[in-house]
Specification:
- This protein has no helices and 10 strands.
- With about 130 residues, it is an all-beta fold.
């Protein structure tokens, strides 16, 4: 006799609060897992192109998890969430969400004309 245990397909969506202006931008990230079965497991938030996770694995409670995250710089961050899966549900990954962190940052600018070179720092505010 064979007994088949099928894990259900899950889906995960990610959302973020508005990022306030400031020198140390942070955002509250939330993810929600949908499935026809009870959901357990963990959710981890990631930034595309970043080797490390933005959060440790967060326990799913009532099909969701959220965390406040300090973003490393102002500008656009491509955030996604991964659901680990559990004994009844397959793991899944959300689509990417563009989160724009506002605030003030600087960039170095250098101009060269022949042997003459001039550099300066420009402060930029992203709103």
């Amino acid at each position: 006799m064979r007994i088949w245990l099928w894990r259900r397909i899950s889906a995960i969506t990610v959302s973020a609060t508005k990022v306030p202006a400031g020198t140390s931008p942070s955002v509250t990230l939330s993810a929600n897992v949908t499935s026809t079965k009870t959901v357990a497991g963990t959710i981890t938030f990631w930034e595309k192109g970043n080797d490390g996770a933005l959060t440790p694995p967060l326990t799913v409670v009532a099909n969701s998890a959220s965390s406040q995250v300090a973003l490393p710089f102002v500008g656009t961050h491509q955030i996604y969430a991964q659901y680990s899966g559990d004994s009844q549900n397959q793991g899944s990954q959300s689509s990417t969400l563009n989160v724009v962190a506002t605030g003030t940052t600087y960039m170095g600018v250098q101009a060269t004309n022949g042997p003459v070179s001039q550099s300066s720092t420009i402060w930029v505010t992203i709103q």
